[in-house]
Amino acid sequence: MEIFFYLFAVYIIFSFFLSRFFVPHLSFWQSPVPETIPREMEETIEKLKTQSSSPKEFLELSFNYLGKKYHSERLATILKFSYLFKNLENVWVTNGFIPCTQSNFLLRIFLVKSGFFREDDIRRRHVFVNFVPHQYLQVKLDDKWLDVDVGEKHRGMPIGKHLKYFG
Known about the structure:
The chain is α+β, with helices and mostly antiparallel strands. It has one domain. About 40% of the residues lie in helices and about 15% in strands. The strands form two sheets. Strands 3-4-5 form a three-stranded antiparallel β-sheet. Strands 1-2 form a two-stranded parallel sheet. A hairpin with a 2-residue loop joins strand 3 and strand 4. The longest helix is centred in the N-terminal third of the chain and has 15 residues. About 25% of the residues are buried.
C-alpha cells in the first residue's frame, strides 16, 4: 500500500509540476500568440469577425466553430501523448481529438487575432479531472471573467462553465 502512495505522489508531481516545463501551452508562463498563423486559420477568423458585431458574439462563434471541429478526452490525452507536441499547422488541419491545451491555444489565437481581445484578457486555468490535469480558459468580457472550456463543448459544456468533477 505504501508503494501505491509513493507512485501516486510521483504521478501528481509529474502531472501538475514537471510536465509544465516541457508540454507546450501547459507551462507556468503563457506563450504569446504567434505573429504568423496558417492562411486558412486567418480566413476563418476574418469570416467569424465579419459575422460578429461584438466581442461576445465573436467569442460565441469561435467557441462554436472550434468546439465542433475539435474535442478533448482525458483517456485520449494519455494514449495519444504525442498530440501534445503537434505544431500549430498540424493541429489546424486535424479534426476530432486534440488535447485541451491545443484547443485552448487555438481559441486564444482566434480571440487575439480578431482584435476584440488582448492577450491579458485571456488566462489559463487548470483542474484535476479523473486523475488527469485539464485546462480551460477564462476570458474577460464586460469586466467579468467567463470560464470557457472549448474542448468540452461536444459534451454540452456552455460558455460560463468548465469541467470540474473528480472521479
